[in-house]
Amino acid sequence: MPDITTLTLTDLRAKLAAKDISATQATQACLDRIQATEPKVDALLCVQAEAVLEQAKALDQAGPDKDKPLWGVPIVVKDAICTKGVPTTCGSKILENFVPFYDATCVERLKNAGAILLGKANMDEFAMGSSTENSAFKPTRNPWALDKVPGGSSGGSGATVAAGQCFSSLGTDTGGSIRLPAAFCGVTGIKPTYGRISRYGVVAYGSSLDQVGPMARTPTDCAAMLAVMSGHDPKDSTSAPRPVPDFEAETAARRDLKGLRLGMPGEYWGEGLTPEVRDRCQAAMDTAKSLGAEIVPVKLPHTQYAIATYYIVAMAEASSNLARFDGVRYGYRSPEARDLKELYELSRSKGFGEEVQRRIVLGTYVLSAGYYDAYYRKAAQVRRLIRQDFLNAFEKCDVIVGPTSPFTAFGLGEKTGDPLQMYLADIFTISLNLSGLPGLSVPVGLGKDTGLPVGLQMFGKAWDEATILGAAHALSGALPGLGEPKGL
Amino acid sequence: MKFTPEQAAKVAALARLTLPEDKLEHLAAQMGDILSYMDTLASCPTDGVEPLYSPVEHDTPMREDKARKTCQRADVLAQAPESDGRFFIVPKIVAG
Q1: For residue range A83-136, what is the model confidence (pLDDT) as tens digits?
Q2: Which of A72, A140, A443, B67 could make an SS bond with A16 (beta carbons 3.0 to 4.6 A apart)?
Q3: What separation in angstroms does the CA of A20 have from each of A23, A129, A224, A324, B63?
Q4: Quick one: pLDDT at residue A107?
Q5: How confident is the model at residue A265 (pLDDT cuts 50, 70, 90)?
Q6: Does residue A99 sit at the B interface (CB-CB below 8 Å)?
Q7: Cβ pair A282, A401 in contact under 8 A
Q8: How much is the pLDDT for B60?
Q9: How many CB atoms lie within 10 A of CB A442?
């Protein structure tokens, strides 16, 4: 039998159902892999070794359950997502000792589906960053090259899948935080339509932008995870009361790209791409064409404003959301405070890291009287124009395609001194969050200069995750695999 | 855009953050750079464009105004930095 940890989630599930592999064996294989690779990648903030082995043993005693679609599948959850009885730090000192007494709805649904939650993934503090270097605890390293970042903010979630520590992980995507680490780590990651997955129990960063989504080895694996987590949740008013398609069946059913119009926006394929990213993505488009896709040019003319728009909206929402961390009800409290004002100021000043403080201050500024119209209202207006660009483009095509990032994974420490340069890493991902549309990143090969993974991004119409998952499935099936990460 | 350390300190105070003196100048310079970049939005014509604050398209109906027990007091207080078992404890608010 091949090493269990190299199986896809879909293959593992079949072997678990057939009792070729027990839940205990799958769990133990992941724990062994974590022990072997974690000292190199630092992808995880906590591992529940004893508890998950007990859980796996109980599952084995009860036997496979066809009503539990993820029966016995070990997964990892980003530390921004509340997990009952398991620390949820959001990568921050201010929540270092926080142990929620409830599960986020997405976690509850995964558990009900029989998934085994191995542990929590490292992340940029409060999901603010593009490299996972902003974690208050440690930076995560890219399994393909240990001196490179895994992308952020769900870098731990990307690295843990790439390193074979689990079969899927959860990330959150506010401005590309699932798709960027997926691209850098050579895995597939999808940000669903805003409202597809409940945000109840997810620590809020930019409330109108945040979405939970899965990262896994294949688009079909992502579809299996998405199917379990999707659907209306009365605990989240932004969760949409819409039917959930059979994502898995629709994804697996697509064998080619016949009848699919792929839109190539000039703004994503112009200057600024490194030659290796351009080559790999262009080669993938050639493959798509050979699979029957029709390639059509489309325009997204407001792309040039996307980063400024995004950061104004995200920082404004963050400054408001993070007001709840005041040292009163949970989280870090400064012992030096003599009155309530000092309690707030000292707890927040010592508990939050530098990037979080920078974004809170900027968010407070753009929302303050006198500047609100010039920044926040203006950004909200441009946001509508950016969304309208997509709606116009989707009149000409079914899927919009472009590189996930202009470059492959960059070096640890390379961009930490210049926040604006770090923000520019999100240039191709953030428009999607502003628009609320679904998008994924799928690996399309290794860059010929760096040998690091290159991701191709596919944007879909609202609620049309099945089409982009199916297209990614057909395309990746026609491309050579990446092989094993070279950094391990 | 020029952003002074004094301005940075003032905005930080509004956000209930106290930044050390030696970091204020650095933060102010970074804020100046970032806000200058954000100022590029001024060149985007938006007359008559309705702001988009959320991509939610469905109605978000109000919940029934009815008290429900969703969690136990002990669970909530268990996370508190300081409590007396019934309430959160904070430093004295009113002098005297």
Answers
A1: 999 999 999 999 999 999 999 999 999 999 999 999 999 999 999 999 999 999
A2: A72
A3: 10, 41, 20, 49, 48
A4: 98
A5: very high
A6: yes
A7: no
A8: 82
A9: 29
Task: Tell the burial category of A27 from Cβ atoms under 10 Å away from its Cβ (0-12, 13-18, 19+).
Answer: buried
The complex scores an ipTM of: 0.95
Q: What is the pLDDT of residue A184?
A: 98
Residue A194 touches partner B, C-beta closer than 8 Å:
yes
* Closest chain B residue by Cα to residue A96: B79
Query: Tokens 């939005």 appear where?
Result: B41
Of A340, A352, A420, the CB nearest to B90: A340
Yes or no, beta carbons of B34 and A419 under 8 Å apart: yes
Please tell me the distance from the alpha carbon of residue A205 to that of residue A172, in angstroms, as a whole number: 10
Distance CA A214, CA A220 (A): 11
Q: Give how far Cα A129 sits from Cα of A19, A132, A139, A356, B12, Å.
A: 42, 6, 12, 9, 20
With the C-alpha atoms ordered A115, A441, A150, A318, is the resulting torsion angle positive or negative? negative
What six digits make up the tokens of A270?
């112009």
Disruptive mutation site among A381, A391, A418, A435 for chain B (greatest number of B CBs within 10 Å): A381
Q: Which contiguous run of DSSP H or E holds residue A454?
A: strand A453-459
Angle between helices B21-38 and A354-367 (to 10 degrees): 60
Q: What is the pLDDT of residues A457-477, one digit of tens each?
A: 999 999 999 999 999 999 999
Assess whether pLDDT exceeds 60 at residue A445: yes
Look at residue B68 and tell me whether its pLDDT is greater than 60: yes
Question: SS3 of A455, please?
Answer: strand
Using only the alpha carbons of chain B, give its radius of gyration.
23
Task: From chain A, pick out residues whose CB is under 8 angstroms from the CB of B11.
Answer: 361, 364-365, 368
**Confidence grade of residue A425 (pLDDT, cut at 50, 70, 90):** confident
- What's the token pair of residue A36? 């072997």
**What is the H or E stretch that residue A443 is in?**
strand A439-446
Cα–Cα distance for residue pair A30/A12, rounded to 1 Å: 12
CB distance B44–A344 less than 8 Å? Answer: no
Q: Give the whole-angstrom CA distance, residue A4 versus residue A20.
A: 11
Closest Cβ opposite residue B91 in set A331, A343, A365: A343
Provide mean pLDDT across the span B84-95: 90
Q: Which of A434, A420, A215 is nearest to A314 (CA)?
A: A434
- Stretch 30-89 of chain A: residues touching chain B, C-beta under 8 Å: none
Find the residue in B nearest to A238 (Cα). B56
Q: Do B41 and A308 touch (CB under 8 A)?
A: yes
- Whether residue B11 and residue A368 make contact (CB cut-off 8 A), yes or no, is yes
List, edge to edge, every strand of the sheet that includes A74-78. A44-47, A116-121, A74-78, A168-173, A211-216, A188-191, A439-446, A453-459, A399-403, A261-265, A294-298
Place of tokens 């790209």: A257
Q: Which two tokens stand for residue A445?
A: 């090969």
Question: Would you say the pTM of this structure is higher than 0.90?
Answer: yes
Q: Are A444 and A281 a contacting pair, CB within 8 Å? A: yes
Tokens encoding A84? 């009952």
Q: How far apart are the first and last CA of chain B?
A: 46
